[in-house]
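Hi there,

I know you've been waiting on this one. I reran it after we fixed the sequence typo, so this is the corrected version. Both the input and the resulting structure follow.
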Amino acid sequence: MGLNTLLITQARTGSTRLPGKVLKIILGKTLLQIHLERLSKCKLVDAILVATTSSPDDNVIYKNAIEWGYYSFAGSEDDVLDRFYQAALPHSPTWVVRVTSDCPLIDPALVDKVVKFSIEKNADYCSNTLLEHYPDGQDIEVFKFEALSKAWKLADKKSEREHVTPFIRNNSDFKGGQNFAAVNFPCEKNYSHIRMTVDEQKDLDLITRLTEAKGLDKSWLDYTNYIIDHDLLAINKDITRNEGLLKSLSKEE
């Protein structure tokens, strides 16, 4: 019998803009460690798995995850959809939660809310990013393993293989498709101009200042309000959201 809910987070050291970013240290801990320790507080997640690559450079991530008590998997560096599917397959989950390790301050309570909402709606796919109103760095996707399996079999565009969920999203009823039932997890206000993800040094500078002031255990809204109230927005406001996906799409045009 498989897991009900498996959370998979993607992690690798390779990054063109900030190499080794998930191993950068803040308050004595790596960003990956902070990320995983926060996620371990999720109440509706049965297990956490770190999906890294088979590159020797990422062996440290694979080993760290196991040492810290999490499942770990090393797979394709470029076909991330395959890596994600192969990581999930042995666990036979009903639901898969996808987050990424460049979001160190991901909120476990928010993850639980999106999981609960997904199960209640019985959606093939649910996310708080179909309408981007949450801060960048609080991105959460929940989908049925059946949907992941279908995407793995059918996705053929490079952008659909380099990123896990474009095939599901683009073929969902939310986007006018027919293959998947998708719902957006709403936010009362639009905070999409807030960045608490780490793609560049400016992002790391903001996260460092934020956590030095507020610690590592606050909610997404506490961090958001601090960024707004203390005028930290200017630090990384010029960075484009989802730049990696946009680059993949531009190559197909």
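Quick highlight: The first helix runs from residue 31 to 39.

Best,
R. S.
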